[in-house]
Amino acid sequence: MRLSVQEAAFDLGAEANQFSHDLRGVGAVVTFSGLVRDNGGQLTAMEIEHYPGMTEKAISAIMDEAVARWSLADALVIHRYGVLRSGEPIMMVATAASHRADAFAAAEFLMDYLKSRAPFWKKEISANGADWVAAKDSDEAALARW
Length: 146
Description:
Oligomer: single chain
Low-confidence stretches: none
CATH architecture: Alpha-Beta Complex
CATH class: Alpha Beta
Number of helices: 4
């Protein structure tokens, strides 16, 4: 299991290859990468803040839960912070399990958690100023299904 909270960009393909390279006895690997989305073409950047230590502890606990709940062979979470531009990767989740249903479910669980509960604070910056990103009811509903 690997968690990285980092400012630097990452290469999705390289990370996926490294994640799956030494896996044995698994039938499925699921990967997902979230990108900075520019709804309406007004976004200059997104600034993501976090508290080192607290963030890693919270995400590690939810990763442990996913590994146990879906009998994962391995899991990976990468989440960036700092100033990111439209189209840049924000995060990546990878899961490995004996069966695809478990790998997909665990990946969705981790993504829903990262979207709604992980201790990150996001600010959208545009020509009109900066606004903190508020929680969405749809994100809460997605997490509630677990």
